Q: What sequence folds into this?
């Protein structure tokens, strides 16, 4: 199966990646650790040491419009913390 994977570039994630050689990605909720490891290794040509995951539920949203109150929900996602081998780096901007 094909899963969506998107790098998360925030101040906290960038500082964590510089300090611990660990990169963060938002992936589909039905992806598991082995699939995430394979995708990252193929996309970025690095050797993945370890993958930790955290599930995030979709948050409720609402906004007021002329037509009244509109309620909705953001999509749920899974955050993957990928630790790569020593001396290797992931460059998010290399394939732009």
A:
């Amino acid at each position: 199966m094909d899963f969506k994977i998107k790098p998360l570039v925030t101040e906290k994630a960038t500082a964590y990646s510089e300090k611990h050689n660990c990169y963060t990605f938002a992936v589909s909720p039905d992806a598991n650790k082995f699939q995430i490891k394979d995708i990252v290794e193929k996309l970025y040509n690095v050797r993945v040491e370890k993958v930790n995951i955290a599930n995030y539920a979709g948050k409720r949203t609402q906004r007021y419009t002329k037509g009244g109150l509109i309620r909705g929900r953001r999509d749920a996602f899974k955050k993957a913390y990928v630790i790569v081998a020593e001396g290797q780096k992931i460059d998010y901007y290399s394939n732009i």
Remarks:
- Helices lie at 11-20, 33-44.
- The chain has a mean pLDDT of 91.
